[in-house]
């Protein structure tokens, strides 16, 4: 194993570790769930992918380790945004409060505008009831 | 010159320490969502630690553990999100 490869692996793994540690500190110290979700997805994208690339570089592209590392990278890249989005939406719908310093809530503004609009028309078109508003 | 296996072990230990760093948030997250977020991140770090440990110890059979950890942590996150949204928890 040549020295160059070791240095490249060390640098890539160090980049990944720095991002992982900063994301973990962010999850510990951020004020509400939504900020923590943002930290978590940044951590995974920028913290895990350099480490996986380090593994690919260190073990060679055709080894079993590199293949598994690439599978894990593809899984993380596809499923992580979906899971973060689902968690954020579920947290909002479950009524988890925002931080006191948060300045905008676009969903609340949109819901208020829709309610005002429905008040004007007053139920003459019942198919306007949106999905997700009924009670089950 | 540093051996590359030692480097892999060092990275594995560091990633496991990052996962341990997230445990306070899992223990006292104010809401369930906080705990799920922290648990997801911790299990991704654990999967990375397993990958690097497998590369350092030359045991390719441990690699599947990492793949299962990653995929099931996200399936779990989506299921928890579903339950939260329906209000069962």
Automatic annotation (TrEMBL), chain A:
Pfam family, one: PhaG_MnhG_YufB
Signal peptide range in chain numbering: none
Region of interest (Disordered), residue spans: 111-136
GO MF annotation list: sodium:proton antiporter activity
Assigned protein family: Belongs to the CPA3 antiporters (TC 2.A.63) subunit G family.
NCBIfam families, sorted: CPA3_mnhG_phaG
Listed name of the protein: Monovalent cation/H(+) antiporter subunit G
């Amino acid at each position: 194993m040549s020295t160059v490869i070791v240095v490249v692996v060390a640098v890539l793994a160090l980049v990944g570790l720095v991002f992982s540690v900063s994301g973990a500190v962010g999850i510990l110290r951020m004020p509400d769930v939504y900020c923590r979700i943002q930290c978590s997805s940044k951590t995974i994208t920028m913290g895990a992918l350099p480490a996986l690339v380090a593994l690919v570089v260190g073990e060679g592209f055709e080894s079993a380790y590199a293949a598994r590392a690439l599978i894990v990278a593809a899984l993380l890249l596809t499923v992580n945004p979906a899971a973060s989005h689902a968690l954020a939406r579920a947290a909002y719908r479950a009524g988890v409060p925002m931080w006191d310093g948060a300045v905008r809530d676009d969903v609340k503004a949109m819901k208020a505008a829709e309610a005002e609009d429905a008040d004007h028309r007053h139920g003459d078109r019942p198919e306007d009831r949106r999905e997700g508003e009924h009670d089950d | 010159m540093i051996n590359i296996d030692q480097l892999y072990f060092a990275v594995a230990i560091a990633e496991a320490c990052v996962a341990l760093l997230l445990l306070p948030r899992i223990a006292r997250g104010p809401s369930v969502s906080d705990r799920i977020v922290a648990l997801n991140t911790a299990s991704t770090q654990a999967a990375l630690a397993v990958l690097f440990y497998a590369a350092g110890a030359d045991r390719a059979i441990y690699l599947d553990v990492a793949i299962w950890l990653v995929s099931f942590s996200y399936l779990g996150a989506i299921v928890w999100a579903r339950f939260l949204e329906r209000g069962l928890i």
